[in-house]
């Protein structure tokens, strides 16, 4: 979070400057990228876990 977030809230009665809006949008974009990366990592972790379970079931079925 940048200093802009600390100084300005969208519920504020004052209009944000173009620079403030740009900084806010950049912060939101960065947060969205981080969230997306975490979600992608979690998805891959879960898919790997399921793939390992399937392999385990297949090995047990062969025996």
Q: Number of helix segments? A: 2
| Cα radius of gyration in angstroms | 22 Å
Which ranges are low-confidence, i.e. pLDDT below 50, for 5 or more consecutive residues?
none
Alpha-beta classification = mainly alpha
- The number of domains is 1
Taking the alpha carbons of the first and last residues, their distance comes to 56 Å
Shape: rod-shaped
**What's the count of strands?**
0
What is the mean predicted local confidence, pLDDT?
A: 88
Largest sheet: none
Query: Beta fraction of the residues?
Result: under 5%
Kindly state the percentage of residues in helix. over 70%
SSE string, helices as H and strands as E: HH
Oligomeric form of this entry? single chain
Describe the 3D structure.
This protein has helices at residues 3-7, 18-62. The chain has 63 residues and is an all-alpha fold. It has two helices and no strands. The longest helix has 45 residues, at 18-62.
Short description:
This protein is mostly helical and 63 residues long.
What are the main properties of this structure?
63 residues; mainly alpha; 2 helices; rod-shaped
Reconstruct the topology from this structure:
Blueprint: H1 3-7, H2 18-62
């Amino acid at each position: 979070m940048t200093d802009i977030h600390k100084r300005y809230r969208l519920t504020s009665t004052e209009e944000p400057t173009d620079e403030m809006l740009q900084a806010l949008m950049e912060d939101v974009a960065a947060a969205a990228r981080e969230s997306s990366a975490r979600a992608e990592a979690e998805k891959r972790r879960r898919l790997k876990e399921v793939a390992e379970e399937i392999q385990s079931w297949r090995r047990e079925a062969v025996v």
